[in-house]
């Protein structure tokens, strides 16, 4: 068995066909041949497709995660990719990659596309037991200090150990002994020992109801994911909902195919400083691959006054630090406009999202040709500022479905080199109608 096969990431445990249980080897999936109509495009033209995508999102959002401890989400992605007939792999930093191959010779010659989302969310991991009912835990994530003292949390202790060779090479910063699953142990933060600033990390003492193993993932004690009132709510929308969107795209491409080579990149430790993404970019740059592919980051971003929840997926022209590649942005806008032409109900936004910095800035810095899409999200990093409390994040369900449709459209884009043929046609029409007036004083 190849060392790059996904089974090297998976626990030594009995095989199971049910998502959420770990696998001991590959799952062989017979994928039916797409019909001619299926191959034309993948979209959510029926409610059943949209419901399936949202169910996939809920399934992934049930997985606990934190920076450096993304193994539950990674395991679910690997499971679903294997079921779809792909061979997911892992790089030296523990990022998961899925190559969605295409059989068309013309597509193989097109500019490759990399779609990326990060598997972590601000969270805790247990460091050590310091008393019979007290643990010391580390935190990574951008949340103000005032929300910590007395906050209710839960840890996922125990579970099934991953094989020792994940992350690949064993060189990733973080606790050793990664485990899948585990039982929930609730607790309360009783002291903040070391708060190093928003996004810089913290050390806390937590009074827990039962023993918690070192390395256990911790999150705020919030309700599980649900779909109600037109919203998708969960503790870790950012960016597990982005991961879910890419998984939906992966499943659609397995059915309908792509018009260009597409790689899905699921990264680690974004909240700790873009570490998984930076590792990927450093490797690609050192291999001389800068500019070889278009890279599109998929994020859940803080809603702004002019970028509202419910107004459609956002073609993100930039973030707090960067303005993204015009060619990649044009390609994204072209895909969005084609959807509008096909379906007048499809809505999207084009915005500069300044609420934070995203992985597309890393791509732009190291590799160039980067674009971004996102959803406007409420309760960024679980902070309900209006009510001064911690709560689940949320996005609009139609926005999520629109995001999947947009990403499918990008993967099936006819302008693989980043030139928006539709926009060029518009300019050409304007030229043909009125260019003669440049030198005709009478008109």
Helix content: 25-40%
In terms of per-residue confidence, which ranges show pLDDT below 50 for 5 or more consecutive residues?
Answer: 1-41, 168-175
> With helices defined by DSSP (H or I, 4 residues minimum), what is the helix count?
10
Biggest sheet details: 8 strands, mixed
- The overall pLDDT, averaged over residues, is 84
Shape: globular
Main sheet: which strands, in order across?
Answer: 1-2-14-3-15-18-16-17
N-to-C terminal Cα separation, in Å?
73 Å
Strand percent estimate:
15-25%
Q: Class by helix and strand content?
A: alpha+beta
Radius of gyration: 22 Å
* Overall number of strands: 21
What does this structure look like?
The protein is of the alpha+beta class. 28% of the residues lie in helices and 25% in strands. It is built from ten helices and 21 strands. The strands form five sheets. Strands 1-2-14-3-15-18-16-17 form an eight-stranded mixed β-sheet, sandwiched between helices. Helix 5 crosses helix 9 (397-411). The protein is globular and about 90 Å long. The model is unreliable at 1-41 and 168-175 (pLDDT under 50).
Q: Keywords for this structure?
A:
443 residues; alpha+beta; eight-stranded mixed sheet; six-stranded antiparallel β-barrel; 21 strands; globular; disordered N terminus
Describe this structure in a few short sentences.
By secondary structure, this protein is an alpha+beta fold. It is built from ten helices and 21 strands. The relative contact order is 0.16.
């Amino acid at each position: 068995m190849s060392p790059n096969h996904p089974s090297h990431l998976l626990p030594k445990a009995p095989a199971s066909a049910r998502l959420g249980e770990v696998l001991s080897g590959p799952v062989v999936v017979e994928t039916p041949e797409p019909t001619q109509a299926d191959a034309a495009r993948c979209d959510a033209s029926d409610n059943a497709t949209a419901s399936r995508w949202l169910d996939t999102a809920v399934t992934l959002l049930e997985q606990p995660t934190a920076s450096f401890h993304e193994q539950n989400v990674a395991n679910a992605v690997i499971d679903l990719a294997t079921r779809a007939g792909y061979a997911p792999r892992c790089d030296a930093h523990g990022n998961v990659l899925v190559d969605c191959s295409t059989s068309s010779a013309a597509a193989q010659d097109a500019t490759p596309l990399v779609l990326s989302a990060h598997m972590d969310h601000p969270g805790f991991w247990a460091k050590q037991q310091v008393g019979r009912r007290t643990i010391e835990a580390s935190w990574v994530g951008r949340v103000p200090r005032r929300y910590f003292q007395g906050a209710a949390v839960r840890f996922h202790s125990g579970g099934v150990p991953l094989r020792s060779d994940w992350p690949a090479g064993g060189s990733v910063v973080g606790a050793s002994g990664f485990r899948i699953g585990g039982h929930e142990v609730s607790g309360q933060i009783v002291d903040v020992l070391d708060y190093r600033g928003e996004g810089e990390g913290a050390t806390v003492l937590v009074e827990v109801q039962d023993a918690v193993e070192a390395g256990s993932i911790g999150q705020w004690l919030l309700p599980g994911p649900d779909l109600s009132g037109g919203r998708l709510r969960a503790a870790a929308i950012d960016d597990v909902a982005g991961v879910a969107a890419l998984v939906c795209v992966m499943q659609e491409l397995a059915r309908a195919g792509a018009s260009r080579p597409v790689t899905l990149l699921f990264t680690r430790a974004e909240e700790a400083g873009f570490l998984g993404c930076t590792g990927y970019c450093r490797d690609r740059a050192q291999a001389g691959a800068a500019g070889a592919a278009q890279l599109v980051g998929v994020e859940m971003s803080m809603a702004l006054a002019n970028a509202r929840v419910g107004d459609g997926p956002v073609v993100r022209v930039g973030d707090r630090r960067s303005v993204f590649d015009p060619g990649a942005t044009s390609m994204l806008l072209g895909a969005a406009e084609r959807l509008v032409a096909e379906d007048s109900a499809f809505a999207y936004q084009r915005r500069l999202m300044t609420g934070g910095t995203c992985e597309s800035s890393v791509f732009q810095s190291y590799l160039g040709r980067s674009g971004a899409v996102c959803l406007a999200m409420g309760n960024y990093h679980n902070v309900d500022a209006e009510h001064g409390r911690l709560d689940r994040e949320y996005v609009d369900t139609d926005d999520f479905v629109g995001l999947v449709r947009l990403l499918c459209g990008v993967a099936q884009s006819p302008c693989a080199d980043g030139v928006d043929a539709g926009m060029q046609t518009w300019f050409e029409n304007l030229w043909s109608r009125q260019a003669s007036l440049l030198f005709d004083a009478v008109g």
